[in-house]
Amino acid sequence: MRPLVWGLIIVVTLVIQATLLPLITAGGVRPDLLLLVVVSAGLLLGRDQGVGMGFFAGLLQDLASGNIFGASILSKTAVGYIAGHMERKVFKEKILLPLMAVLIATVINNTVMIVLLVSLGFKVDVPTAVDNTLFVLGYNAVLAIPVHQIIYRVAKSELPDPNG
């Protein structure tokens, strides 16, 4: 694991998510690039990398957003763990893998966030939150494969050689 490289990827992703993505929102909803990076890193490099990336991405997202501190940490770390747990059970080169994983991860991430907010006593309009999740699903589905290909290129040197 090259922590400096992965840390830089998270920071650049956060900057893009905070500055460029608000320009392409639909109804105030935008894709979650940090989630896409966490899922791809977990799928490619395993549970430890997924958890580490999820924690760091969630920490920076919580610090940058001003939302409830810890909510993104919890949801992104959980998603990184689940994606990383699947690392040995999947073919890394398959193109549909990141798409399916991102769809599942988006639902998990948003569900954790909604449940956490409700359990902490915040008023959450659940039907609107579900609608927003569907928009995020669409955005993330469009960006899942390109983001995964970028992360795959960065992670290639850390992947075990399939030929032995």
What labels describe this entry?
6 helices, single chain, mainly alpha, 72% helix, Arp2/3 complex 21 kDa subunit ARPC3, 164 residues
Folded structure, characterized:
- With about 160 residues, the protein is mainly α.
- The protein contains six helices and no strands.
- Helix 1 (about 5-20) runs parallel beside helix 3.
- The longest helix is centred in the last third of the chain and has 30 residues, at about 125-155.
- This is Rod shape-determining protein MreD.
- Kindly state the percentage of residues in helix: over 70%
- What is the correct CATH architecture? Orthogonal Bundle
Bulk shape: globular
What is the tally of helical segments?
Answer: 6
Tally of individual domains: 1
Class inferred from helices and paired strands: mainly alpha
CATH topology: Arp2/3 complex 21 kDa subunit ARPC3
β content, as a range? under 5%
pLDDT < 50 stretches: none
**Average pLDDT reading:** 89
* Element string (H = helix, E = strand): HHHHHH
Transmembrane segments: 6-26, 63-83, 95-122, 134-155
Family: Belongs to the MreD family.
Membrane topology: Multi-pass membrane protein
Main location: membrane
